[in-house]
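Changelog-linked ticket: zinc ion example.
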Amino acid sequence: MEFPTRILIGRGVLARLGDFVEEGGTKKKAVVAAGTRVHEKVSEVVSSSLNGSVEWVKVTAADIQNVERVMTAARSASCIIGLGGGKSVDVGKLAAFKRDLPFFSVPTSASHDGISSPFASIKGLDRPYSVKAKPPVGILADVRVISSAPRRLLSSGCGDLVSKMTAVKDWQLAHEVQGEYYGSYAASLALMSAAVVLEGSKKIGEFGMDSVRDIVEALISAGVAAGIAGSSRPCSGAEHLFSHYLDLLAPGVGLHGEKCGVGTIMMSKLHGLDWEGVRSALEHVKAPTTASAMDLKEEQVVEALVKASSIRPERYTILSRNKLSREKALRLAKSTGVI
Ligand SMILES: [Zn+2]
C-alpha cells in the first residue's frame, strides 16, 4: 500500500506551501506544473511561499509531451508540484514518478479523485484510461481557492464521487465471478466517499465552504482507497469505461466526473441499485443527468454503452455480464431519462 504522508486542507493554506514542501524533506528547487490561468491567479503567493526557488512549467494538455517538458525542467529539482485542476496534477504526477522525485498535489479545483490517487490520465499512451504512477507524498488543498473555481468543477467532482457506488459493485462482481482480489476495507472507504454526496446532496448542493471541504476530503479519501487496493478498482467500474469511451467518441465534450455521474445512473439500474436516488443526488448538486446537458448526442451515449467494455476487456464489470445490444442500450438510456 502506498499513501500520501501529509495532507493539509483549509482556507488560505496555499500561502503555507513552502513550509509544507520543506517539511516533506525537500529544500532545493521545486518545479511547479500549472495551467496558464492558475499561474496567473496564484503564482505570486506560491512563488513567495517557496522563496523564489521555483521553476514554472506551463501545462497545456495532459499528454506525454507535457510530461516530458516537466521531466526536463525537473533534472536538478528536489520535487515536483502539480498545481491546478486535473491536467497539471496528472502531468506532474507522472513526471515525478518517471524522475523518481517526491510529488506534491495542490488542487485548485475538486473535479475528480486524481488529486490523491496513484493514477494519472495522460493522452498519447497506448490506452485511454489511467496509468499507474505513485500517490502524491503530500496534498495541500486550499478550500478558498477551490471554492472560487467554476461551480461546474465541484459538481463534476460529485459525479466522480457517486461513481464509487457502481465501481465497488463491479469489483464485488469480478470477485464473485472471476475470483479477482477484493479488499473490503478499500471498498468501504470508497463507498463512504460516495455516501458523502448520495446522503448529503441537498446540503452539498449549497456549495458552502463546509460542502467544498467535504467534497475535497471525500475525493482525497477515494484516491487513498485506490492506493490501499493497489488498483483503481474501488474507484472505477463500468461507469468509468463508459466515460472513457465517450472521451474517444467526443473528445473534450463533458467533464470526466459529469460523464461518470451519468454512467452511474445507468449502471446502477443494471446492478438493481437505487438509480433514481443517484439521479436526484446529481440533480441536487447541479451535475448533469442527461446526454443533452453534456452536449452529447443520443447516438454517442448508445454507442458508448455498447462498446465501453471493449476498451478494457480484462476489467470485468456489469457490462461484461449483461452484454448490451444497441436495442438494450437504447432502452436503458431512455428508461433512466439519460436520452
Ligand atoms: Zn474518476
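Closing comment: Example verified and attached. The CA atoms of residues 29 and 76 lie 8 Å apart. The mean pLDDT is 95.
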